[in-house]
From TrEMBL:
Gene3D superfamilies in the record: Kinase associated protein B domain
Transmembrane segments: none
Pfam families xref list: KapB
Matching InterPro entries: KapB, KapB_sf
Keywords carried by this UniProt record: Kinase, Transferase
Species in which this protein is naturally found: Paenibacillus ginsengarvi
Entry GO MF terms: kinase activity
Protein name as catalogued: Kinase
The keyword Transferase is annotated on this UniProt entry: yes
Record SMART domains: KapB (SM01298)
C-alpha cells in the first residue's frame, strides 16, 4: 500500500473506496472517494434490536473525509472509482431495499441470535434512512 493508491476500507460499519494519504503503521490515513456500503443503523452493542435506549443514526463518511483505519484492514482497489454522490445514492438505495425486505411481515417473524424482532428493527432503521435521505439530498 502506497500513498495515492486506491483501496477499500471499512469504517464505522460502512464500506468505502478511498485514496491512501499517509501510512503510519499500524494505521493508514485515507480520503473517502466513494461509498460501497451504507453504515448500519441502530445500537452496535445490541445489533438488530429495536428496543434500545439509543437507536443510533449513522451517516456515511463524507466525500474527501479523511479517516484513520488499521492498515491490516485495507485492501487494494483496481476498479473504476464512481462519483461520490452516485455511490452514496446507490449504497443508500441498496440499504433501504434490504431493510424494506426485512420489514415485511413474513420476514419479521424470524428471530436472530438475540431474539429480537427483525421487522421492528428494520422499521426503525428505515426511519433513520429516510431522515438521512432528507439530509443527503435537500
Amino acid at each position: 500500500m502506497n500513498v495515492n493508491d486506491y483501496v477499500t476500507v471499512e469504517y464505522k460499519t460502512g464500506a468505502y473506496i478511498a485514496k491512501v494519504v499517509e501510512t503510519a503503521p499500524p494505521r493508514a490515513l485515507v480520503e473517502i472517494t466513494a461509498v460501497l456500503k451504507h453504515p448500519q443503523q441502530g445500537d452496535l452493542h445490541h445489533p438488530f434490536q429495536a428496543d434500545v435506549p439509543l437507536f443510533h443514526e449513522r451517516r456515511a463518511a463524507a466525500s474527501r473525509e479523511k479517516v484513520w483505519v488499521l492498515s491490516s484492514t485495507v485492501k487494494a482497489y483496481n476498479g473504476s472509482v464512481p462519483a461520490y454522490d452516485e455511490s452514496l445514492r446507490a449504497a443508500w438505495e441498496e440499504m433501504v431495499r434490504s431493510l424494506e425486505r426485512l420489514a415485511q411481515p413474513d420476514q419479521g417473524q424470524e428471530k436472530n441470535d438475540g431474539g429480537s424482532d427483525l421487522a421492528l428493527w428494520a422499521e426503525r432503521a428505515l426511519l433513520n434512512m429516510r431522515q438521512l435521505q432528507k439530509d443527503y439530498w435537500r
